Amino acid sequence: MTLKLGVIGTGAIGQEHIRRCSKVLQGATVVAVSDINLEGAKAALTRLGLQAEVYANGHDVVNSPEVDAVLVTSWDPTHEEYTLAAIAAGKPVFCEKPLALSAEGCRRIVDAEIKFGKRLVQVGFMRPYDTGYRALKKVITDGEIGEPLMLHCAHRNPTVPESYTTDMAITNTLIHELDVLRWLTNDDYKTVQVVFPRVTSKSHARLKDPQIVLFETQKGIRIDVEIFVNCAYGYDIQCEVVGEEGIAKLPEPSAVQMRKSAQLATSILTDWKDRFIDAYDVELQAFINDVRSGNLSGPSAWDGYAASVAADACLKAQNSGAIEQVELPPRPAFYDKA
Ligand code: NAD
Ligand code: NAI
Ligand code: ISE
């Protein structure tokens, strides 16, 4: 039976996910959408050549009898409300990152899901589905570089809009590393400090850019992540793991190398949509398949919560300048893998 999806939020990634669920992936169809920008939602469907019910309110999407499962792709501050509504309706929900704007908000989702008694939530952390990150994890778990000691990472966007502020470097951008590095190292964060270098002239008054975030993990691994969202030159994700016996680096996206005009050049992508296009396909196909078979297995509400606990500590560290503790409670047995 085809899974009927309702999508809340038809902006950049909402449109991408509607396109892939309708035209690329198997086993699903989009039957309803909503956006506070109603005309934008209608225009998106027209552009994609699709027909679906358009609702003015996201709760109408959740509660429509036509909708089997929900995708939340609206702005970050709306995620908690719609995810809680989907759980209340007993419907599976794929929620884009962050699951909520605070650990407290994520905890409300975790508690609601446990009370419901069955996993309903998958968080849109797509990097664990990326072939490069998967290959890097295999090198580590196969013991090829020995125990990891240090990680050097960078998360660079060419530019961000004026609405993007200093805290969003953590809650909207670093949140990907907060999830994927836990997964990669099979470890949890212990402390964090945020350091602000000289601000780029390409930023604005409400955004300190770049930032350097320094972690110590429970096992004693040291991690540095550079977040630089006005780096100008491209969309660039770096991750280098220094182990006891060698170094493993996240592969670069494949690109043709050119010798031309006395230069050796390889182009760099400029958009997250292209950098992780395959990972988004794989994560959403996994969600569709898991909902149809009745058991969700992707990034869980607990993973969303764990990332947000670390994010809250990063926000505190941004303001204090001090080394802050990351205190993650033990994981409930409910989230143990079957
Ligand atoms: P966007 O600004 O293009 O889209 C946001 C949409 O939300 C807009 O269409 C806006 O009208 C709508 N919206 C805002 N408030 C609303 C409300 N109250 N009710 C209904 N609709 C509302 O942003 P985007 O780039 O598509 O990002 C959307 C979400 O996806 C964000 O949470 C972002 O963090 C996440 N995202 C994830 C990735 C990823 O790599 N996983 C990439 C991009 C964005
Ligand atoms: P966007 O701003 O392009 O789109 C968001 C859309 O949601 C807008 O159209 C907005 O009108 C709509 N929206 C906001 N509140 C809403 C509400 N209450 N009900 C219905 N619609 C609402 O943003 P973008 O880039 O598409 O990001 C959307 C979400 O996806 C964000 O949470 C973001 O963090 C996440 N995201 C994830 C990415 C990833 O790599 N996993 C990449 C980009 C975004
Ligand atoms: C965006 O929302 C994403 O999730 C992208 O993957 C990230 O690189 C970017 O910084 C965010 O704004």
Automatic annotation (TrEMBL):
Catalytic activity: myo-inositol + NAD(+) = scyllo-inosose + NADH + H(+)
Pfam family, one: GFO_IDH_MocA
GO molecular function terms attached to this record: inositol 2-dehydrogenase (NAD+) activity; nucleotide binding
Gene3D superfamilies: Dihydrodipicolinate Reductase, domain 2, NAD(P)-binding Rossmann-like Domain
SUPFAM superfamilies: Glyceraldehyde-3-phosphate dehydrogenase-like, C-terminal domain (SSF55347), NAD(P)-binding Rossmann-fold domains (SSF51735)
Signal recorded as keyword: no
Family: Belongs to the Gfo/Idh/MocA family.
Protein name in UniProt: Inositol 2-dehydrogenase
Protein source organism: Mixta theicola
Gene responsible for this protein: iolG
